[in-house]
Amino acid sequence: MIFPAEKISIDIRDFLRAAGAVLILAAVFMIIPLSHCGAVLSSEELQNDLEAAQEAFQNGLEHEESNPQAARDYFRSSILHYRRMIDEGGVRNGKIYYNIGNAYFRLNDLGRAILNYKRSALYIPNDDNLTRNLKYARSRRKNKIEEKERERVLKTLFFLHYDLPYSVRFIVFSVFFALVWLAASVYIFVRSGKLKIVIVLFAVLCGAFFTSLMIEKINFTTSPEGVIIVDDTVARKGDAETYQPSFTDPLSAGTEFELIEDRGRWWQIELVNGERCWIESNAGETVIE
Q1: Considering its fold, how many domains does the chain have in total?
Q2: Is 3 domain-assigned?
Q3: Is residue 279 part of a domain?
Q4: Range 178-186, long-range pairs (CB < 8 A, 24+ positions)
Q5: Could you tell me the pLDDT band of residue 158, with boundaries at 50, 70 and 90?
């Protein structure tokens, strides 16, 4: 009978239309909402800032022992040039944030060093130098807050989600989606059990990466990551100075958190061990600018 074949053909077409809608939605909604300023600097100005930033950092290294104050001034100058590239030039990449993190680390500003290392990790999460520097900076924090066991297990089991950059996962998703589309199109004309298995396999992989992207999209929107940049920040049980401190010791610069609620002057945050508290909003910054 031709009815089953005709039914299969219709089902495949319906599948392709639905898959096409998913791809369009993915393209529209799964871009991480990074805030980008309009570029106002010319290519020549950006190049000048880059060279000035690199030169200032190198001068800082050369003066660290002989003239510490001059070294600090050079590191601050380096940061200003890199920030100008970001704020006025609209340039955002892992290397710039990594270099800013290094300059802050040389200034003993551990909070902003870790903050910028984490910003760098959005673009180059598997960079060996970044990984080492971030690990060392974290080891220098005064507060030793242990990550929840559940989080460590999840990062081990779902290492692709945590280790691959968002952009790479989006490309992988797009590739598997295209393969599903191609295999399904061929299946309309060449009915094969093996081909059906291939379609299912590609669809499962496509769905896995789609889920990973959506989870990250939701997390960035609802619970953005942040870092405390003010040393000895008092965490409180409520959103006012009249509330009692949440902990015996204040939180040190470099303490990482997720932002749960923003009430203007006060933020409710969740630490990596799962405990929640309130801090003044100027005591921290979110990783996504």
Answers
A1: 3
A2: no
A3: yes
A4: 179/206, 180/19, 180/206, 181/16, 181/19, 181/20, 184/12, 184/15, 184/16, 184/19, 185/16
A5: low
